[in-house]
Amino acid sequence: MGRSSIDRFLKACELTLKKSHCMPPEQQRRDVAAAREVWRDRQPSLDPDRLVFIDETWATTNMTRLYGSEFALMLPRRLRGMI
Fold this sequence. Notes:
Number of strands: 0
Largest sheet: none
Order of helices and strands: HHH
């Protein structure tokens, strides 16, 4: 099966191989939102001499697969091996 056939199929079904951006579910919890608000309120009282800054310029946080897994699960089992 060619790439263009897959692209036409996905377009017809209004699907994409790329996953949509997903937010961590814990950010939606009220207790986590409350803790973030407390953190923001306490920031002005932090002692700058005791703060440590970590340079994460080259750190990677992309642990979620961007392609493939979500789409494969939406197909019937008999079609999963075709892609």
